Amino acid sequence: MSATGHRVARRLLLGGAQTAAVVLLVFAATEALPGDAAVALAGDQPDPARIEAVRAAMHLDRPPLERLLVWTAGLLHGDLGVSLTSGRPVAAALADGFGPTLLLAVPTVLLLVPAGIGLGVLAARREGGAVDRVVSAVLLSLYAVPEFALGALLVTVFALRLGWFPPTAVGYGTELASHPAALVLPVLALLARPVCSLARLVRAGMLDSLASPYVAQARRCGLSRTRVRYAHALPNALAPAAQQLARTVDWLLCGVVVVEALFVVPGLGTVLMNAVAERDLPTVQGLAVVFGLVTVLLNLGADLVTHRLAPRTEVAA
Amino acid sequence: MTPVHAAAQDPVAVIEGLRVEIGGRLVLDGVGLSLRPGRITALTGGSGSGKTTVGLALLGEYPDGSRVTGTVRVPQGLIGYVPQHPAAVLNPARRIGALLRDIARGRVRHLPRSRRRAAARERVLDALDRVRLPADGRLLRRFPHQLSGGQQQRVALAQVLLLGARVVVADEPTTGQDPLTKRGVVDLLADVARQGIAVLLLSHDTGVVRALADEVVVLRDGRVRDAGPAAASGRAPLGGAGRGDAVLDVRSLVARHGRTPVLDRVSLTVGAGECLAVAGRSGSGKTTLARCLSGLHPRHAGEVRLVGQPLPPGLRDRSRSQVAGVQHVFQDAKAAFDEYRPVADQVARTAVRLRGAAPAVARREALALLSALGLPAEKAARLPAHLSGGELQRAALARAALARPRVLVCDEITSGLDPVARDAVLGLLGGLLRSGRVEALVLITHDLGTAALADRIAVMEDGRVVESGAAGRVLGAPEHAFTRELVVAEETFGVPGD
């Protein structure tokens, strides 16, 4: 009990240290860029006097350490600064983009987990059997298709030919949630590759644990095949899948730029793309911090889940 | 229970003319035996004689790709199986209670739905009680790796009792167990038989077979033979050199697992050229003590001094020479090697990492030491999977000795080995100590026969050293009640090789 508590506390501390490192890295990376926000803002016609004025207005003439402290203090209050192009708080812009991103990510994950685990378990029922070969072949070919190609294909067939779903989310703006039909194709495009990698990991884990002595013993004890498969073999197959799932959710939350662009969904990926195109440094910085935090939190969660699924690892750590 | 005349009963399971061939190799040839209710039939023979294949045939399990002829008649219903390595059949990701509850649920289907849950729980706790495990439910919430080997064996027995099987196959159930646990397992199997269950005992432990079996069938090379194998013997004492200065000095060591205290103010000293055996039953804290010495259990209090210098508790805080100074050899030699690299490479790596030797020099030293320990270069060049348990344990010894340790900590390194391999490893251990390659030896063992070879013995119970002294004195005239109990248990079942 307390050994687990100790481990969790240590992992949380590590998460905190990682967060601090993310903040420092983002600041350092921005500092290392040639020129600064004022130069960037001045655009293609740099006027030295104007750059100086912007610099003073943005406190860019202050020493880096002071700016780091001010920026970090702001972060602690949820203040990510002000966008250079729109003049709006960065936090508000990110909050706007976060809605559509979640609208894509949540249904994707809700479909991904049962589909990935289900297909993996199905394929592992009999290694090398017809079902296994069909499922594995389909998964491998699907995995080989990049999401922009798959997205374009989905649009051509289901939106343009058959007219079942709208081809893009253009025109729905903030009302995206009330037009679920517009989400179907992007969610499918996002789902394709993660389902393949998750199912292949679950299949491999299931094959291992179905061949293990503890599963043989559970069978000898007269348990039903279903009970053995799901209650005794599957938990051992899920530890690597949990790590993979964390990476997928991380990818879904941190800018699926290609799919958002293809279906014109105004999510965080779009915010990122625009901010980079407009050299809006505070927004880029804010996004980097948020993405970094999401990654740290998701990996923290995955590690805790893995610890439950493979409790022996505490001995090694 | 009505007393029955066991001999008059018809057999409940029969094997006739069983022949198993795997890839052209004959594993079993014309094996026959019959199991009667309430009787224990022992099937003995060395490793590789085909015992396990016979046992699994009763369960209807055969190795992949085997051709089987002959008949195996078993009763309707399930057959219980008590495995040699209980750790392998307990699911690492599930708590102990998970499988026990699932088995019990299958046994209470006749009850109304509302009463099933409580009835299943009652059966589980009853089974725990019958194998003398605490039946308060706390154990059910623990994971297999949190139990000692003896407790794991009891959990496997509890599974069999819950099944209500009429036939039980016990595959080397006492191998690697300490004398008291061994006696417990023997009593439990006798209990099982008294309930009218037919038991097939697969064992090469002559003491256990003598104590339990109604009938003995000896198997050799897949055929039934009359003559039993004679246990090899002839062990030399370890160490024996006079006590020099203290190499290892342990003062008031205190350690816990979570909130459970495991070591309680343990103090001991090991002198140069000396072998100290730490004996005690499983769960007494021996392994934790060994892990504290080697820096593998960093959360402990107290002092560990190596030639007068205090050692940091954790391996990561120890300097390279301190790490080299205390080397650890584990019980499971197979798990201690990377399965994808040749054994010789892994052995040589120690000299590079811990002594800064040049790779070529390290390799030469490794090969020389390996061949001195009976592993010629062509054998050592193979992957671990191609070496036997005894050979791997010798390679593990070579790897540890190559660090030129002051203290070599051996944690039950012979308990998984058959008698011949065990004597070979113990002989080599004595050679390492006498030749000065290893300055002092700490031998963790539950086997008093092995402990008797040491210069001194420290006996542990519940995390405390309850008695220590010269080996002859401790075993010949034990002072503490627990030590006396251990010695008596050992005499009842005999040390293998006595």
Your description of this structure?
The complex is a heterodimer of chains A (317) and B (498). Chain A has 317 residues and is mainly alpha-helical. The relative contact order of chain A is 0.14. Chain A has a domain at 91-278: MetI-like (MetI-like fold), CATH 1.10.3720.10. Chain A is built from 14 helices and no strands. Chain A has helices at 2-32, 37-42, 48-57, 64-76, 90-124, 130-143, 147-161, 181-210, 213-220, 225-253, 257-263, 268-277, 281-309, 313-316. Chain B is an alpha/beta fold and 498 residues long. Chain B has helices at 51-58, 86-89, 96-107, 113-130, 149-163, 179-194, 206-212, 286-293, 320-325, 343-355, 359-372, 377-380, 389-401, 419-434, 448-451, 471-476, 481-493, and strands at 13-22, 25-35, 40-44, 66-73, 79-82, 167-171, 198-202, 215-220, 223-225, 246-257, 260-271, 275-279, 300-306, 309-310, 326-329, 407-411, 440-445, 456-461, 464-470. In chain B, the strands form four sheets. A six-stranded mixed sheet of chain B has the order 5-6-7-3-8-9, sandwiched between helices. Chain B has a six-stranded mixed sheet with strand order 15-16-17-12-18-19, with helices on both faces. In chain B, strand 16, helix 14 and strand 17 form a beta-alpha-beta unit. In chain B, helix 3 (96-107) crosses helix 4 (113-130) and helix 6 (179-194) packs across helix 17 (481-493). Mean pLDDT of chain B is 83; it is low at 1-8, 227-235 and 494-498. At the A-B interface, helix 1, helix 9 and helix 10 of A face strand 5, helix 3 and helix 5 of B.
